[in-house]
Amino acid sequence: MRFGIRTLDELDVRGKTVLCRVDINQPVDRTKGTLKSVNRIRACVPTVRELSDKGAKVVLMAHQGSDIEYKNFYTTRPHARVLSELLGREVKWIDDVCGPAARAAIAALREGEVLLLDNVRFVAEEQTLFEMKLRLTHEQQAKTLLVEKLAPLGDLYVCDAFAAAHRDQPSLCGFEQVLPSAMGRLFEKEYCSRTGY
């Protein structure tokens, strides 16, 4: 434990379904359907690889695009392709976030497999207007659609989205209320560098 927060060293993840929030938001070339940068995706690889290598069933949640205007949203499909290349193993992808298709895909995961869900901001409660206007407590966020649908399928929650951790949204704050939680390696690295450790 560091700074009162669990690390991956304290989790037994083998055979467990780990819901992992990452920040892989990148500039997109919409005409080609590709990413203009892969830096943030590369940064989360150590956490995803460690969880997969240790036998976890890894479910990645991420956002893509600014949510100030809906037209800025984009699918996370190209992110799965890049992550597959960087990991050297398949990263499954599904065009759903917490509906029946996503839940079925999560339930079908085997040890070591990785699944990236589509853009969490396709779910209204992950948008800025929802966050700023309703100002839900973390306990209330644990009762939102995203958490209520996915948490029963998960055994553990890992937050590796340090750059998005200031946001007050269910994928960042709600799961911690209902699942044993820890920070990922990128989060740990960033937090330590900012505190001088």
Summary keywords:
197 residues; alpha/beta; Rossmann fold; two-stranded antiparallel sheet; 8 helices; 34% helix
Helix content: 25-40%
State the separation between the terminal residues, measured CA to CA.
13 Å
Q: What is the number of strand segments? A: 8
- Overall, the morphology is globular
Low-confidence stretches: none
Q: How many domains make up the 3D coordinates?
A: 1
- Give the amount of beta strand, in percent: 5-15%
Assigned CATH superfamily: Phosphoglycerate kinase, N-terminal domain
Largest β-sheet summary? 6 strands, parallel
- Tally of helical runs: 8
Task: Describe the 3D structure.
The chain has 197 residues and is α/β, with parallel strands linked by helices. It has a single domain, classed as 3-Layer(aba) Sandwich (Rossmann fold). Helix content is 34%, strand content 15%. It has helices at 39-53, 77-87, 100-107, 128-134, 138-141, 145-150, 170-173, 185-195, and strands spanning 17-21, 28-29, 34-35, 57-61, 91-94, 114-117, 156-159, 181-183. The strands form 2 sheets. Strands 5-6-4-1-7-8 form a 6-stranded parallel sheet, sandwiched between helices. Strands 2-3 form a two-stranded antiparallel sheet. The two termini are 13 Å apart.
